[in-house]
Amino acid sequence: MSIDIxxxxxxxxxxxxxxxxxPILHEIEHSAAVVATGTLFKIANRSFIITVRHLFDQVSDLxxxxxxxxxxxxxxHTFGDIKIYKPDDAKIDVAVIELHxxxxxxxxxxxxxxxxxxxxxxxxxxxxxxxxxxxxYPVALTGERNxxxxxxxxxxxxxxxxxxxxxxxxxxxxxxDFFFDYGHEAQALDGRSVSxxxxxxxxxxxxxxxxxxxxxxxxxxxxxxxxxxxxxxRHYDFTRAKNWWAVAQLLEQVDERLASEVRASxxxxxxx
Length: 272
Prior knowledge:
alpha+beta; 2 domains; 7-stranded antiparallel β-sheet
């Protein structure tokens, strides 16, 4: 299945997704390394980063987590006062960072962009209908030049798998886990065939699905929706994600108002 957009539209989609997809870095002395990817969201007037749970198994000192000032280049900043929410069930590999520092939120609003629940949907009920891509910052494509940490932003189109892959090591959670093809090559949004990098560092990044927009004028914002959170992969085989119902379940532990708003958004989203 191909993506029915032209090169200019593909560039606009990539720019939009780049503006909301933030690399989460771990500062070590005078350098920093990408440890995960997150997506910025405003829910009920509160500021969040949706990411992956296993990030917090790797990093014990949260004060060393940092982000760049803007998507293209900028000084690193720490997240300040944050609250981490993780599911009671360790098998549900999602996490939510709530940002409490007004200065951090203001800086992110200036250099990045926050999504709302209007940008979220349930994944297509029919896997064959879903034109999907994964977005994040692979460690394999990250480096340092002249004192700056440079991360290469990846958006690679893939196809959802109808069946659970054979030889799966981690438990499969019915209704929350879904899988996508991740072979030796993938299709970029502009149609180019690209070699697939190792996805370490992309964990926590959003999985996006193209949707039929009701808007008369085409726009990137109305053409794609977040349907999942990338959690693991088997290179040259598949990538795995939790759908956004996992976020709704997590937020039930935090605040019923937050959870009810997420559930309402997912329930009204189309699932052809």
